[in-house]
Amino acid sequence: MIIAAKTITALVALIHVYILWIEMFAWTTTGRKVFRNFPKDLFIPTKQMAANQGLYNGFLAAGLIWSLLISDVDWSRNVALFFLGCVTVAGIYGAISVSKKILIVQSIPALIGILLWSIL
């Protein structure tokens, strides 16, 4: 079960590394393709704001990766649960305020990770 918990945690971390990359480095290129409902004329004016959001996604990814590097299982679980909880809350807020798709992309995988870590 620990392999499944660590695998989903790694997947959630990778999702957030990808979001970091889009928001910090590819907002006006790949961002236009990913965020199709966002007004095209606002990508350039919001580039710095998106980069700031990307940095926060990077912090989530860093915490999740950190949890995978901790050798003590209890500590690893606690750190993973904290950051997966943060991802879940952020995804729920994003689903309410921006798009329901955020719930599927971010919150559902994080909730699966929480479930897997909780049953260890």
From TrEMBL:
Entry keyword set: Membrane, Transmembrane, Transmembrane helix
Transmembrane region(s): 6-28, 49-69, 75-95, 102-119
Pfam families: DUF1304
Top-level taxon: Bacteria
Keyword Transmembrane: yes
This protein's name: Putative membrane protein
Native source species: Maribacter litoralis
